[in-house]
Amino acid sequence: MPSTPKPPTLLTSHLSRQRVFAQLSSKSREALAGQFTLASATAGATLLAQGRLPDRLGLILSGSARLSDPDLNLSVQLEAGDLFGFGATPAPQLATWQAVAGSDCELAWLPAEVLVQLCAKHPQLAFFLPSYQAAHQPQEAQTPQVTESSNALNLLSTPIRTLIKRAPITVTPDTSIQATAALMRDLRVSSVLLVEQGLLFGLVTDRDLRNRVVAQGLDISHPVSDIATLAPMTVSANSPAFEALLLMARHNIHHIPVMEGGDILGMITATDLTEQHSTSAVYLAGDIYKQSTVDGLKAISTRIKQLQQHLAAADASAYSTGHIITSITDAITIRLINLAEAQFGPAPIDYVWVAAGSQARNEQTAKSDQDNCLILDDAFDEATHGAYFKALSKFVCDGLAECGYIHCPGDMMAMTDQWRQPRRVWAEYFHVWVDQPKPKALMLTCVFFDLRAIHGKADLLDGLRQQVVQRTKGNSLFLAHMVSNALKHRPPLGMFGQITLSKGGDNPHTIDLKHTGIVPIVDLARIYALAAGVTVANTHDRLEVSSQAGEVSAQSARDLRDALEFLGKLRIAHQARQTRQGKAPDNFLALEELSNFERSHLKNAFSVVQTLQDVLKQRY
Predict the structure, then answer these.
(1) pLDDT tens digits for 344-401?
(2) Of 221-225, 576-580, 603-607, which range is least confident?
């Protein structure tokens, strides 16, 4: 998009016809015209990418543009004479919307700092510039707006029952398709529940009517049970809203019945959640399942950083954000497996694709590599089946790399022969790692003791996991080696409790939030879980369940969960800031990014981890 200075005399006439700059005197407009630059763009070209709207103000001289939030599928059309970007676009949309040329167009750009200087000289202009007003209000005036926005967006801990808008709409299973459709039309609902003798039987949506009736030419006098989704997934009324979000994102569904015990309270839909800014994961996952090529998935995956920005802006917890971001990784993985099976044919024997590491723990952020493996049925024969699973795993791992999940530097991936084995071989791996805890074995346990089934026959993993925890529970020698290995990651605290910054490397004078903050907590929780024979993988959940099993005190578990949440939110906010600035997200935090209050909490979090590491050291 070429950009050149705009001759002041040519631009002045445009400014005089624009309602904001028409407020200025002729002399002021002439002076302002010299501050603009001209750009031309062809239809479909990106004018300002997500996160770049705060950089400058754009004036459309000819043609048209479209402002959109691709994560929420929202857009507005702009024509010649309209303004967008810093000042003109409302503050809540500045960080997440983008601008694209609707047709061939010419634009004039004004740097944000020039607009600030202009409004300081001519304060009447601020009346027309909502995001300039928001950025320059006194802090006290901004607080109610921010609080209200946060409350409206942060439903991740809100009970689902508060989102139910009406009593459930129900029909009996023998109701005709025609009568069901008429009821949905009259009541203006997109779904009904099939109920018999007070029990939930099934679910029918407008999508079922379209795909299973109209598209198939089905007789509309048939009972509606013929097209229903039987035994649909449900959520508890007291569950947090993000659980409904995760179900929708992971299974590409848009309607979930809400239950209280055996009673049906109502329905929660994607539309109900979409009113909340943080739930674009539902539609992002839906788009993933529509893709038929790796290139399509690659294009979709670029939106994950913006999703994390949305969640950070909504003040979502690190626990919830990890689950939501990971659900997108799961969706991409499953879709790649679907594409692989479409290309190579159905699997010749049972298998399960297993996530390891942060994906297994539901703790991913926008900065993640891949750790995965394949557990094959013991019927596996290398000569007969080896080539198929080698091709499938390479397709999926390479596809994940295309989507931004870089290949594991240690080759801990299903495409590596060692990590694509029958169940009996995996059982032997774990047997050796537990009974002969050498340094490499301990390193591998940190990856492969955190496992979660993503696609395939989950029973292959479940039985294996039970065998593993039977061997580790109360195994003092093995746990002592695990503690020794965990103590290699220590929080960056000096002798007098001061935070110590890295001195060399590519990121000097920063804190590695991942390896010196979060990883030590992950390691502690893993040891507690193995000692207690606990099979859950998520760190927060491990701490809670291990506390109930008596492996760590309730107070210490709470302290570690709070420290994990605080460090996780710092990491997410840091990465969101980097994304807004057009930088690649990382885990290296400069203390300059933190307030004194946050620095104090950071020291406390590190101190909690250090103390509990020392307790385990003494125990083992």
Answers:
(1) 999 999 999 999 999 999 999 887 889 999 999 999 999 999 999 999 999 999 999 9
(2) 576-580
The residue among 312, 317, 306 whose CA lies nearest residue 281 is: 306
- Mean pLDDT confidence for 238-257: 83
Is 585 within 8 Å of 366 (Cβ atoms)? yes
What contacts 212, CB < 8 A, 6 or more positions away? Answer: 218, 227
| Class of the CATH-defined domain 168-266 | alpha beta
Residue 595 has pLDDT above 50, yes or no: yes
Contact 80, 316 (CB under 8 A): no
* C-alpha dihedral (175, 177, 181, 182), degrees to nearest 10: -60
Burial of 85 (0-12, 13-18, 19+ CB in 10 A): buried
Chain centre to alpha carbon of residue 580? 16
Q: Tokens 């492969």: give the residue.
A: 448
476-619 and 168-266 share a CATH fold: no
SS3 208: helix
Query: What's the per-residue H, E or C state across 441-494?
Result: HHHHHHHHCCEEEEEECCHHHHHHHHHHHHHHCCCHHHHHHHHHHHCCCCCCEC
Select from 373, 369, 359 the least CA-distant residue to 404.
369
How confident is the model at residue 1, as a pLDDT? 56
Domain ranges of the chain: 3-136, 168-266, 476-619
Predicted local confidence at residue 295, as pLDDT: 93
SS3 of 240-308: EHHHHHHHHHHHCCCEEEEEECCEEEEEEEHHHHHCCHHHCHHHHHHHHHHCCCHHHHHHHHCCHHHHH
Residue 362 φ/ψ, nearest 5 degrees: 60, 45
CA distance 493 to 17: 61
Burial of 318 (0-12, 13-18, 19+ CB in 10 A): buried
Sheet of strand 3-5: strand arrangement: 3-5, 37-41, 105-111, 56-62, 83-85
**Least confident piece of the model among 59-73, 146-160, 243-257, 523-537:** 146-160
Q: What is the mean pLDDT of the chain?
A: 87
pLDDT given for residue 278 in this prediction: 41
- What is the CATH topology of the domain spanning 476-619? Four Helix Bundle (Hemerythrin (Met), subunit A) (1.20.120)
Kind plus residue range of the DSSP H or E element containing 589: strand 588-589
The DSSP-derived string for 335-363 is: HHHHHHHHHH-S-SS-EEEEEEHHHHTT-
- CB-CB neighbours of 315 under 10 Å: 16
- The candidate with the shortest Cα–Cα distance to 433, out of 488, 379, 475, 371, is 475
47's enclosing H/E stretch is: strand 46-48
Distance between CA 504 and CA 54 in Å, rounded? 33
Beta 170-171 vs 191-196: how paired, if at all?
parallel
- Look at residue 252 in the predicted model and tell me its pLDDT: 82
Mean of pLDDT values over 606-617: 95
Mean local confidence (pLDDT), 478-483:
93
For 3-136, CATH gives 2.60.120.10
